[in-house]
Fold:
Amino acid sequence: MTPEAIKLIKASYAQLTLEPRQLAARFYEELFAVAPNLRRLFPDDLTILQGHFEAALALIVRNLDEMHAIREPLRDLGAQHVHWGARPEDYITAREALVRAIASRSASWDASIEQHWRQAVTAIIIPMLEGAAVQTAMTAVRLSTEIEPL
Ligand code: HEM
Structure:
């Protein structure tokens, strides 16, 4: 992302006038509306998760221009997501749900800011998917030690 795009995202994020957990609540609503099959992966009560999700998003947006600083934590988060049952294709569904949630809470919105947000969320999910891939590869390596040499 260009420095200009990151500036726009930060300004757009700062303008989201929100009560705590409102954005996350909308995100999960949007997600489960298009992918009801994902609901069972999550706890019944989403309150704590909404708080964690918003805290993570705030941290990520603040550090968009220092991606190198958050790449490792995002990879770890992606690795954890393997255990929670997130599949690669779910990230695209989640990305679109998040973009719609942000749009619904934004006073000003157009195709250009939507595209910037989509890119920002893509920049988040890439390291998460990298972390998921490493996690999966480590499982394969661990399993390979269980096989007797032929
Ligand atoms: C933009 C991408 C995503 C971000 C930034 C994100 C962020 C987070 C965060 C911060 C947590 C809480 C971690 C904690 O409490 O320690 C979490 C939990 C979780 N996420 Fe995601 N997530 C994303 C995508 C997804 C996707 C695609 C799925 C797949 C369905 C998913 C499923 C879950 C589940 C099941 C939990 C754990 C619920 C529990 O506490 O049992 N997430 N996520």
User: Anything to note?
Assistant: The pocket of protoporphyrin IX containing FE is lined by residues 38, 41-43, 49, 52-53, 56, 81, 84, 86, 90-91, 94, 98, 121, 124-125 (CB under 6 Å). Residues 111-144 form the longest helix (34 residues). The mean pLDDT is 94. DSSP finds six helices and no strands in the chain.
